[in-house]
Design a protein that fits this description.
350 residues, alpha/beta, Enolase-like, domain 1, TIM Barrel, 2 domains, 9-stranded mixed beta sheet, 12 helices, 13 strands, 35% helix, 24% strand, globular
């Protein structure tokens, strides 16, 4: 099959800077691809890499598009290097909008994203009034003693029966993670996300040691641990499944090259999965949410139907609302996802 490939690069300021353990994130960079096949069918996809996670860069994705050229074919597309996982995902989405099959759910719950530090308190009540009952708080940003002192107050501010997710973005060493896990056992914490992390630049030995630390923490404490930064692409998912990871897999479909293959592997392993935004535009969000709606949830507990709340409570996200996904609400409906307009984003970048 022959295709006409076009792409448009973007650098979109966030409505408010995102603070994590990796630093302050002020804008999102990526590119939108447009693919037209011989029959005239047009599809769109988004490459939204996160280099500090260990993905490729936007420059590398742009170079990959230029290598393919305006006119390309299936063989050349399949020959894209595995390193360009986000670009491979974008082109796959443009070729096949429903990467992992038909939807099995009509609606899914959504977790509300709280900002780091004391700024969280100003948003809990408003989000609770909207109906949110799962909240995600960014930690690992300030002094550990200050954040631990705030934890009780954050939990006290939650509505009755609510759950709290803590996301450290790999900020801590083992001893610091242990302090948090000891406290989490006394709080309504659903899981602790990525307490520790070793970047690829630190080398394979450091990464293997950190894998052992995470496996040890997961076995020593009752609060589940979730992997996020540790799951950059297909190989990472395979490695952790092979290691018998007992916790949760936070899946950002936009970072996975062969999404269908990865999801089939997780389903076979009966893994507990939480789908999460990579802070992408409408284009990538639509693709990622369709993957989430197609997930059977076999690895979830019986009381988690139709699945754990999605990590997509991020909108409004961009200063220019034309690039936002569906408004952050306690639930997202499949029909709302289907109505998202990829072509409108493409035109807005012209």
């Amino acid at each position: 099959m022959n295709y006409r490939l076009q792409f448009r690069r973007y650098a979109l300021p966030f409505r408010a800077p995102v603070r994590t353990a990796h630093g302050v994130w002020g804008e999102r960079e990526g590119l939108i691809v447009r693919l037209e096949d011989e029959s005239g069918r047009v599809g769109f996809g988004e490459a939204a890499p996160i280099p500090h996670f260990g993905t490729e860069t936007v420059d590398e994705d742009e170079a990959g598009c230029r290598t393919l050229g305006e006119w390309t074919n299936s063989g050349q597309i399949e020959g894209l290097p595995a390193r360009l996982g986000c670009l491979r995902h974008a082109i796959a989405a443009a070729r096949e909008p429903t990467l992992s099959g038909p939807a099995v759910n009509d609606f899914l719950g959504v977790a509300a994203l709280l900002p780091a530090g004391r700024a969280a308190f100003a948003q809990i009540a408003a989000r609770a009034e909207l109906g949110f009952r799962v909240f995600k708080w960014k930690v690992g940003v300030g002094d550990i003693a200050d954040e631990l002192a705030m934890l009780d107050d954050v939990c006290a501010a939650l509505p009755s029966g609510a759950k709290l997710r803590l996301d450290a973005n790999g900020a801590w060493e083992r001893r610091q993670a242990e302090r948090w896990l000891e406290r989490c056992a006394e709080c309504p914490v659903e899981f602790l996300e990525q307490p520790c992390f070793a970047e690829a630049k630190h080398g394979e030995t450091a990464q293997r040691k950190m894998d052992d630390v995470l496996l040890g923490l997961a076995g020593d404490y009752p609060t589940p641990i979730a992997l996020d930064e540790s799951l950059v692409g297909e190989d990472d998912v395979e490695r952790w499944v092979g290691a018998g990871w007992p916790g949760i897999f936070v899946v950002k479909p936009s970072l996975l090259g062969d999404v269908a293959r990865v999801m089939a592997r997780l389903e076979k392993a009966q893994a507990a999965v939480v789908f999460s935004s990579a802070l992408e535009t409408t284009v990538g969000a639509q693709t990622a949410l369709r993957v989430a709606f197609a997930w059977s949830g076999r690895g979830e507990s019986k009381d988690a139907s139709p699945g754990r709340a999605l990590g997509f409570g991020v909108w409004p996200l961009f200063a220019d609302a034309r690039f936002d996904g569906p408004f952050a609400a306690p639930f997202v409906r499949k029909e709302d996802v289907d109505r998202l307009g990829a072509e409108a984003v493409w035109n807005a970048l012209s």
